[in-house]
């Protein structure tokens, strides 16, 4: 059990207790809140306080908690659809339903477990030890092309290429309604929802810039088959942007309509292409993951207006 007493400085004046302890300990906010609810936090000498308490300069906050036991990553023989591989990077076509890296509730069966088995123990030293090789992510129920680093020298370069948006990513989606115009740009800042911590939302004052370019491939009676290119890469960006303009991605469990009956598990969203410069040679490379059968089935069903 860890125990510490934190003295609140003038710079921390007014912060919520859970935010203050998150910054001081490195724990997640939910972990801090769990220990607060358990009665492990007090304002010395012995006043019990809650997550929404706002700290004041000079407060002495006593906090004790147990370190979360780190899960040991194991390699697992999980099939990978490999689009390209060399000594420095691997490009895969991720299946829908696969989590990218271990986390709460997903300690095995992830893409990282598969990569460790395929690439070998040397992958453990590449990047973050809790998610070795991972330079960007796709949501669990988003399929498609994704790159991972296999060497330390490639890791930093790929990470910067993704973060700076030098790498070009293109998605295919089936969305509700007919889009207003063949092409368009959505510029709406995004941040974590203040109402539901599992979701993200358009936050005009506090959100981070987010830009999605879209192009309609095919208009359907009640739907649109579209291509989206990301100028930024915020969490759930396409899903939130489309829902906000009332063209939610079909079957989206977080942001969509609840009465979708399409033959797909999760949102009808696919990472279609990725273009980047090779981290070592600098060669421009283009990768494409074919649109999966479940999305083609959704498209065909959407074409049959009388059946919907």
TrEMBL record:
SUPFAM superfamilies: Alpha-L RNA-binding motif, Pseudouridine synthase. Residues 15-79 form the RNA-binding S4 domain. GO terms for molecular function: RNA binding; rRNA pseudouridine synthase activity. Coiled coil: none annotated. It comes from the Bacteria. Keywords: Isomerase, RNA-binding. GO terms for biological process: enzyme-directed rRNA pseudouridine synthesis. The active site is at 139. Its EC number is 5.4.99.-. PROSITE patterns: PSI_RLU (PS01129), S4 (PS50889). It catalyses: a uridine in RNA = a pseudouridine in RNA. Responsible for synthesis of pseudouridine from uracil. Belongs to the pseudouridine synthase RluA family. This is Pseudouridine synthase.
């Amino acid at each position: 059990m860890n125990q510490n007493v934190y003295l609140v400085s003038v710079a921390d004046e007014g912060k919520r207790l859970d935010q203050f302890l998150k910054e001081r300990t490195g724990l997640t906010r939910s972990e801090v809140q769990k220990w607060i609810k358990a009665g492990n936090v007090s304002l010395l000498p012995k006043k019990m306080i809650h997550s929404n308490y706002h700290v004041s300069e000079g407060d002495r906050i006593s906090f004790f908690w147990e370190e979360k036991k780190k899960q040991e990553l194991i390699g697992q023989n999980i099939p990978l659809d490999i689009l390209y591989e060399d000594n420095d990077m691997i490009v895969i076509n991720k299946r829908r339903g696969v989590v990218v890296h271990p986390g709460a509730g997903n300690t095995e069966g992830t893409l990282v477990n598969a990569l460790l088995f395929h690439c070998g123990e040397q992958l453990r030293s590449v990047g973050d030890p809790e998610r070795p090789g991972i330079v960007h992510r796709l949501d669990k129920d988003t399929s498609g092309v994704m790159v991972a680093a296999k060497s330390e020298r490639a890791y930093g370069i790929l990470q910067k290429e993704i973060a700076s948006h030098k790498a070009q990513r293109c998605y295919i989606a089936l969305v509700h309604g007919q889009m207003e115009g063949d092409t368009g740009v959505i510029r709406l800042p995004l941040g974590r929802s203040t109402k539901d911590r599992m979701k993200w939302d358009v936050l005009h004052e506090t959100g981070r810039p987010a830009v999605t370019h879209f192009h309609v491939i095919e208009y359907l009676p009640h739907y649109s088959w579209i291509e989206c290119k990301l100028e930024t890469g915020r969490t759930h960006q396409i899903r939130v942007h489309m829902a906000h303009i009332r063209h939610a991605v079909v079957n989206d469990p977080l942001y969509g309509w609840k009465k979708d009956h399409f033959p797909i598990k999760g949102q009808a969203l696919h990472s279609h292409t990725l273009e980047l410069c090779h981290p070592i040679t600098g060669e421009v490379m283009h990768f494409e993951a074919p649109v999966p059968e479940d999305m083609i089935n959704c498209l065909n069903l959407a074409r049959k207006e009388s059946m919907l």
